[in-house]
């Protein structure tokens, strides 16, 4: 083959390859831009921000669910189990290998449907159980302080208190480095100090900050768990920060300098317990943290809360201590079944095992026990809030909009939904739908949304 012809052929081949690559990139970008498609290929248990509604989505005419809490509902007879079972949507063939459905009447505790109440991977519905444990252990009103202390002249230590919602800049009324730096600088300047070394202390939590059963693909959206982080451990681009504590310290140094105190060095440092406190900012209350964690399915917030619960229970503030605390507390609350395993506390690990029956009992406890009622504020509402914002989006599912309140769970091969609804004739129902070995996640989600919408529309008394 002549050299000129060979060069032309090579150029054409390169052009074809580049065009194909461009098509792949554009196609992938388009795919990931649509929330429902993105959820089908990415582990949506890692999502901590709400996605915008998909194209063509119509908001519900009303977003008013039945009265919360359920005290104002009359003692409506439990729906007929046969009627509920008849409204169970048909799951498309091959969409999932294993499915379970458990439904109960929260007023009497009567089980209405029990199809496959066996241990399964719960994904983020595990957060319901972890939130219960955090609330039971810590109470509603506790807050966590991020502080600055001065162990000696010319040294300031930024000490993390395990606030998962600490911000860099002042925003939304939440604690921020900006507030803390301004208060710290004012205290230092008042004492005649305008130049310091900055240490940062994240030792409240111990052990490996990354769970041994979390896969590497989670690293794009889940930060290492540490007692000192800002903005949920995310960078400006939305990716997970690889060293959240160091980033927080560096941002604090800049804000301290801007406030009039020059920082000469930034290093990790364990602050003595008796070091003089300069300033402090407080996290939202546990009640508010739980509501955020459930609405947004925030893995970092849940893992942080369960570490706080572990420390309050005398355990270590690490993955093992958090899992042990959740396990022990669930057993004490009667929320345990043979074969269950709590491996992490946010649901990312595929080693977790929970029965749908226990999820149903947990929701029933939230509805019927006064001390757990605050968790209701965290339940996403179908088609309206949280991780259910872009669900219940077609005609078959419309009856569930504003009525179904449930925690979602989603990994590549796991889809779950656990919560409650009130039927059209006023009967409350608690439910858990769990699918493992999922090969068609969108089909499974539609099955769950259609089923719960049918129950919501049911006059099944």
Q: Number of domains in the coordinates? A: 2
Just name the CATH architecture of the largest domain.
Answer: 3-Layer(aba) Sandwich
CATH-defined superfamily of the largest domain: DD-peptidase/beta-lactamase superfamily
Widest β-sheet, arrangement of strands: 2-1-10-9-8
> What is the string of SSEs from the N terminus onward?
HHHEEHEEHEHEEHHHHEEEH
Low-confidence stretches: 29-68
* Strand residue percentage: 15-25%
Radius of gyration: 25 Å
Describe this structure in words.
- The chain is built from eleven helices and ten strands.
- It has 461 residues and is α+β, with helices and mostly antiparallel strands.
- The chain has two domains: 237 residues, 3-Layer(aba) Sandwich (Beta-lactamase), CATH 3.40.710; 139 residues, D-Ala-D-Ala carboxypeptidase C, peptidase S13 (D-tyrosyl-trna(Tyr) Deacylase, Chain: A).
- The strands form two sheets. The protein has a five-stranded antiparallel β-sheet with strand order 2-1-10-9-8, with helices on both faces.
- The radius of gyration is 25 Å and the shape is elongated.
- About 9% of the residues have low confidence.
